[in-house]
Each structure stands twice: as C-alpha cells, then as structure tokens.
Specification:
Length: about 450
C-alpha cells in the first residue's frame, strides 16, 4: 500500500518539512559528515518533482544564548544545493556552484544558489536568517514551485525546546502541509517536532520518506523479528541501556552485552574486573536483568575474555585475561579473542540482528578488534539473508569507519530516538503525526 506521503500530490503546495540537519561541523564550519542531509534528499525531491516547494526547518547543535554564527544553518546552504543537484537523475543541466541572488525577492534570501533536481528543473535554495518573523514569512509566501527555503536554526529561539504553542503556531504559518522527516529528534516534544501538529488537520501532516523507513525498520525488529533475534548492546554506560535491555527481554532470543557496560554485569556475577568501567549503583539491576532473562529463556552473553590495558590510553600495555579475573589496576578495553568467537557464532546463526554500541574503545587502534569482528559477523549474516539494523551514534560511526555501511540492512539516523523506540516508548514526533491531537 502506498504511504500517505507517497500518495500525496504536493503540486502547488508549500511543504514545511522538519528535518534533522544536526550535522557535525569542524572549526571552519565545514560539514564533516553529511549522512543526515543525504538521508532527506528523496523526501525533498518527491515534493519538488510533484511541483511543490519545500521549507526546511532544523536545529543544529545546542546553542545556549540565541543566535550565533557557530550554530548557523547558513553553513549548510551550499552543500544542500550540491546534494540536490547530485541527486538529479540523468540531468544534463547541472548548475552546481552557480550563485544566484534571491529570485525576485527583496527580502534578503542569503546564500541563495541554484542547482538541479531530479525533475531537471533548476532549484533555488534560499535561506532565511530567522525561522520565524517577517523575512521568513515573506520569503516563504513568495516561493515558487521547485524552490527550497532553509530556515535558520530553530534552537535560536528557546521556545523550540520548550514546545511553546505560540512559537509552533508561527512556524505552522509558513507551510500548507507539515512533513516530519526528523527521526533523530522524534523523541523530543519540541515545537517543530510535535506541538506544531495541532495546527495542521490530520490529512495535512505526515511522515517523510526517511521517517517512514526508520519507523518501518524499527517496527520490523521490535514487533516482527524473525527468530533467532539477537540484540547486541555495547558502549560505556549501563545506566543508558537498562531500559532497552529490559524491553528486549520480551522479544530477543539472545542479548550480547559488550563494551564498558559488560563489566558491571560481570561484577554482579562476582567477577574481579580490576579497574574496568563499573557503575556500582547498577550492579543490583544488572543482577536482576540476568535473573529475569533466565526466567524468560533469553540467553545473555557476556564476554568470556577481554583485552586489558594498564591505562586508558592508545599506547597502554595490553594483555588478554578472563573478563572475571582482571588484575587490579588493569582495565578491560575490548572483548578478547574467545569472546569475539563466542559473539560471532551467535550473530551468524541469528535471523534478526539489532546493534547499538561498540564492543570496546574502538576509537583507539589497539581496542577496535572486537567491534570490527562483530561488524564483520553482522555483514556475513546479512549477506546470508538475515535482517540487520544498526543504530546509535557510536555503532554507526564504527560501521562507517570500518567500511561496512553498505553491508548491513539498515542504519538508523536516530541515536537517542532509536534507543527510546526500543525501550518501548511512544515517541512524541511519531504520535504527533499519527494521532488526532487537535
Ligand atoms: P555509549 O555512548 O554509551 O554508546 O558509549 C560509547 C563509548 O563507549 C565509546 O566512546 C567507547 O570508546 C566507549 N567504550 C566502549 N568500551 C569501553 C570500555 N571497555 N571501557 C571504556 N569505554 C568503553
């Protein structure tokens, strides 16, 4: 069945699209990873190709005190224009980099450029230096089909994060239809991600293509996982992952726990973990989780051995030790070779794989083997037909860093949002689109 977004004809419509353009910028304000922008291009192109225009709104970083150059979305205008152009299917008339001033508008549309989209029409990318106010409103009003307007950082107004209805209403005036394509912020009840929904009738609010894909893939794993289903949970902090593990006890066949958080579990079993990462106040809950897993028939796998180090540093002395017998003053910074084999065997026999969090300090060369081994096993299982979903900032970086991005079934763009989804929570950005909350 065609989705609401795909079935909608945007001809002559101004679509107000909430995207997650919260991309990392370096000291020169250059984009260092554009995956989040790339992920929304199909949504933008569908609207433009229908004959609509697109008003994009996003946050960038965590600006403290109102507007600042550092967090300005103007740094993204040029690249957005290039991406729209590159996505042109067989377009002969690429106009990358050609600068044009705002067409027919005296309202300053800063950084406006031209590029070409899939419909081979050149598209103007305009920029409004405030997301609300007269300039944004007039620019939006004068936009023609095929044009894109990027609004300045929503978080320059504190009302955004407060979910202020007055602010949401002002934003809503910019478009005829509200499209939520920002899975990365779907767990926030902010003005542009949720509250704004009440100013659009239900037929004029919908998910974009990215959001549809994110929700469909997450749903598939959470509610329709083909068994055996293994969840691989790693990273530093148990406290961040308790709820997801508890919820996964209801559906997973196996849960692999790696990374720094594994040592709290190993300590709960009575192991000696040396100076490995440990959250002492979570030892009790770790024990409880292991008891619950046993009662439910879910197999929890902890790393049998670890790569240990005499300090938390890339040039530390290293050795291998059983994870429950780590000498004092040494710490486990990666899973060991036996644990790699143990984990990889479980992964290879699983039909559904969910991965969140690295197996070790993968940023340092000496401690990335475990994370790489897990990524390799996931890629092998995927090639044999298993479904694999990777999410959460660090596991996504690892998959990219090790060159496995196209060897897994799906990489989620939402870190916190994905975690909360798998904790079983209803995400405000999803409920707002689906529910009739007028
Ligand atoms: P999280 O944000 O909780 O997913 O944690 C990711 C971070 O955990 C990464 O920066 C890893 O370097 C770190 N990490 C993974 N394993 C360990 C470990 N054994 N000891 C300390 N930090 C770790």
């Amino acid at each position: 069945m065609m989705s609401k977004f795909s079935a909608y004809n945007f001809k002559g419509q101004k679509a107000l699209v909430r995207v997650d353009f919260n991309v990392p910028l370096n000291d020169q304000c250059e984009i260092t990873d554009d995956s989040r922008m790339k992920a929304t291009i199909p949504t933008i192109n569908k609207i433009l190709n229908d004959g609509g225009s697109v008003i994009l709104m996003s946050h960038l970083g965590r600006p403290k005190e109102g507007p600042s150059d550092e967090y300005s979305l103007k740094h993204l205008v040029h690249h957005l224009s290039e991406l729209l152009n590159q996505s042109a299917v067989g377009s002969q008339q690429s106009a990358v980099g050609s600068q044009q001033s705002a067409v027919g508008s005296q309202q300053s549309a800063v950084g406006s450029q031209q590029s070409a989209v899939g419909n081979q029409q050149p598209v103007t990318v305009l920029f409004a230096n405030d997301c609300i106010g007269e300039q944004a409103y007039l620019t939006a009003k004068m936009m023609r089909p095929g044009e894109v307007l990027l609004l300045e950082n929503l978080r320059f107004h504190k009302e955004e994060e407060k979910g202020d209805p007055g602010f949401a209403e002002k934003l809503s005036k910019l478009g005829d239809v509200w499209v939520n394509d920002a899975f990365g912020t779907a767990h926030r009840a902010h003005a542009s991600t949720a509250v704004i929904a009440r100013f659009f009738p239900v037929e004029k609010r919908m998910f974009g293509l990215l959001m549809e894909k994110e929700v469909a893939n997450a749903e598939k794993v959470l509610h329709n996982a083909e068994k055996p289903f293994v969840a691989i949970i790693g990273g530093a902090k148990v406290s961040d992952k308790i709820l997801i593990i508890e919820n996964l006890l209801n559906t997973a066949t196996d849960i692999i726990i790696g990374g720094g958080m594994a040592y709290t579990f190993i300590k709960a079993e009575g192991g000696d973990i040396g100076s490995s990462l440990c959250e002492d106040d979570r030892v009790g809950i770790a024990l409880e989780i292991m008891r619950k897993a046993e009662a439910k028939g879910v197999c929890i796998h902890l790393p049998s051995d670890s790569i240990i180090a005499d300090k938390f540093a890339a040039d530390a002395m290293t050795s291998d030790a059983p994870s429950n017998n780590i000498p004092d003053d040494w710490m486990g910074l990666d899973i060991g070779p036996n644990a790699c084999e143990q984990f990889c065997n479980v992964i290879k026999r699983s039909k559904t794989i969910l991965w969140n969090g690295p197996m070790g300090v993968f940023e340092m060369h000496n401690f990335q083997h475990g994370t790489k081994a897990v990524a390799t096993a996931i890629a092998a299982a995927t090639q044999k037909g298993s479904f694999s979903l990777v999410g959460g900032g660090d596991s996504v970086s690892a998959v990219n860093q090790f060159g496995f991005a196209d060897k897994v079934s799906y990489i989620s763009t939402g870190g916190g949002a994905m975690l909360e989804y798998f904790e079983g929570k209803k995400l405000p950005g999803i409920s707002a689109v689906e529910g009739d909350n007028r």
